[in-house]
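Today's session is about reading a structure prediction critically. Students often jump straight to the picture, but the first step is always the sequence itself: look for stretches that repeat, for charged clusters, for runs of hydrophobic residues. Only then move on to the predicted structure, which in these notes is written as discrete structure tokens rather than atom positions. Here is the chain we will use throughout the hour.
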Amino acid sequence: MAKHPIEDPVGSNELSPAINGAQWRQIEKAYGMPIPEDVRAEILRATHEFRLFETLEPTTKPLAEVKVILEAYDKAADRFFHALFTDPSGSSDAGFYAHHLIENNFKDSRLGPVAVFDTVLRLLRAFHVACNVSLKQLSDFCNTSSTSWNAWQRWVCRLTEIVRAADLPWKVSKETGETAEPSDFVILVHELQVCFSIECPQPARSTKELAIAISRARAEGRFTSSWRPG
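Below is the predicted structure for this chain, in token form.
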């Protein structure tokens, strides 16, 4: 599958998907209903992850490198946690005074008047969970054959989860007759593929063929429920 860089207005990553308001309006018009801002954000996030996995698919070496990095992050966070909260010296008078000085001198307008160490503790716990969930996602991905089909499959399953959770149309009609109308979800996927220059790895020259590909992706991609970011 050809790779198509997606313009990123922030410039953080050429694979970060970004579409403008007019494009969202076109998607909503075709889909038949408005898409809330939080759902849009989830769709962009899922598409960004799809792009990342797609670029890593040709070889397992980058995946192994990602695993090493995630494990290193988790270990570093664990060491930081133990240094702040379980080191015996931290319970001494000197340790308490060190914490007091940091609390008094820590300035971050985003946090406001909060206990710094309580905030750091919550962040470290959340970071640890994120690292472990990410490692599981990576393991799930490595345990499947590395093909463009798998990346697209995950993307479709994730889109299904997103719109279903938002009580938006997500079902795919099994009717394939000449007069059968494509389901709203099929139209949504089609419009997103157009905006993001995504090609279905399975032959899908029509919405009917796309519906078949989506149904197959869902049937074969049940494991992707764990692919959601932590």
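Discussion point for the tutorial: The longest helix spans residues 116-142.
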